[in-house]
Amino acid sequence: MAFSYTTIIIIASIIGLLPALFWLFFWLHNDSHKIPNKFIVFTFIIGALTVPLVIPLENIAHNLIPIIDNGIIATATIEEILKFIIIAFLVLSSRHIKEPCDYVVYLVTGALGFAAFENILFLIGPLTDNNLVSTIVVGNIRFLGSTVLHSVSAAMLGISLGVAFYQHKVIRIIYALFGLFFAITLHALFNIFIKNGGVTNITITIAILWIVGIIVVSLFRRLGDLRPPMYNINVQ
C-alpha cells in the first residue's frame, strides 16, 4: 500500500524525531544543572534548521572533491563546523552558560536537532518506495549510529570548552579548536567505515562509537567537579 506524501512526511518525522528525543532525554538526565526547557527547545530547533544550510555546502564539496573518502571528510568538516558556529553565535555567546556542563548540553541539544532533521530526510526515500525493510534498517542505523555520533561528537567539543571554562579566553579558543578537530575526526571515520558497508563492518563501527560514547559521558559527568582556581576566579 502506497502512502500519500503527507503521510510519508508524518511517519518520517515521528520515526526521525524519536531517536533524537530519546538521546536528548538521556543527556539531560545526566546533567545535574537543569537548563530551562525553553532554551533547550530553542537550541534543538536551531540545530534542525542548520541542515538546510549544510546541504548545499556539502553538494558543492562533493562536486569539487570527486574522491569519495575526501568528500566524506569534507562533509564531516562542514557539518561539525557549521553546527558549532551557529550554536556558538546564537546560544554560547549569550549569558546562558553558567557552568562547564552547559557547553555540552547546548551543543548536544543542537546536534540532536540536526540529527532529527537528517533522520527525517533519510527516511523519506525508503518510505516513498514503500520499502519496509529498508525503512527499518535506516531507522536502526540512525538510532544506534548516526544520532549517537552527532551527540557524541558535539559532546567532545563541549567537554573541551568545559575543561577550559575557568581559563583565559585564548586558552578556551585553543581548547575549542582541539575539540572541533576531535569531533570532525570521529565523524569522518564513522562515515568512512559505514560507507564501506557490510553488516560486520557497520556493527563493529557502531560498537566502537558506543565505547567512545561511554567514555565521553563519563567525562561529561566529571565536568561538574571542576572548580575555579583561586588565582583565576575572576577570569569570566
TrEMBL record:
Alphabetic keyword roster: Membrane, Transmembrane, Transmembrane helix
Pfam families reported for this sequence: PrsW-protease
InterPro entries (alphabetical): PrsW (IPR026898)
Domain of life: Bacteria
GO molecular function: peptidase activity
Transmembrane segments: 6-27, 39-57, 72-92, 104-124, 144-166, 173-194, 200-220
Protein known as: Protease PrsW
